[in-house]
């Protein structure tokens, strides 16, 4: 039951006439030499840790840099006001994604899904679905297996690290994982799940990793929210019967090639993009990194 591609996941699900999440579970059983029950419970613990992190969000805490904290609470208040155009499920997704990203920046316990920098995407999409649609925990755990399978394929054939693939490898991968899981929750079959993942990842291709001051805060936290919303949009297109012209595995391969083509300045080094803007320089000065950022700003301007 081993798989190395999204097409493998779809093929195995269809050949054995089992849901895609069970393909991933059985592969885990085979790889780690555990029982089906043990595998499922391990994933349940992951999901419960996500829920706990969401429940323990504290809007009064600010990160050491001062760049992160309190925005999740602002989104919560705006959603509660009834004025949000993205009300209901989507508003909740945006809120929870920011809250989780802020919790990471404030050194609270989160689940790397697939990385700490992208930790808000999957929890936001799934916890919001569980709450909004009154779904059972078991179904949410099944969806997490779907996400894990997609993430494993991306990690094997491309990358989930910003340092090697840019933010498309982090937020993009998380968004594809969440999209596939959401499509499953809404009744999508294996092909639908693959299309949802393909849409989500296509929408994030080329996304740079350019954290201000080298911290996973700006623009990372807000990108979690964008990635989560992208996942929901992608799942809805797939559920509508729309098919990706480019298969998921080819999208993953494209992400790998694009990541390799990105200059080092845009792969987590904070030597380009948003990290060398005037505002970033001022933030760094406030944090006592004046000379470092000034040098990077000059180099960035010379290369433009």
TrEMBL record:
Pathway: Carbohydrate biosynthesis; gluconeogenesis. Pfam families: SDH_alpha (PF03313). One of its GO terms (molecular function) is 4 iron, 4 sulfur cluster binding. GO terms for biological process: gluconeogenesis. It catalyses: L-serine = pyruvate + NH4(+). Its cofactor is [4Fe-4S] cluster. The keyword tRNA-binding does not apply. Transmembrane segments: none annotated. Residues 15-275 form the Serine dehydratase-like alpha subunit domain. InterPro entries: Fe-S_L-Ser (IPR051318), Ser_deHydtase-like_asu (IPR005130), Ser_deHydtase_asu (IPR004642). Its EC number is 4.3.1.17. Keywords: 4Fe-4S, Gluconeogenesis, Iron, Iron-sulfur, Lyase, Metal-binding. Signal peptide: none annotated. Belongs to the iron-sulfur dependent L-serine dehydratase family. NCBIfam families: sda_alpha (TIGR00718). This is L-serine dehydratase. It comes from Clostridium fessum.
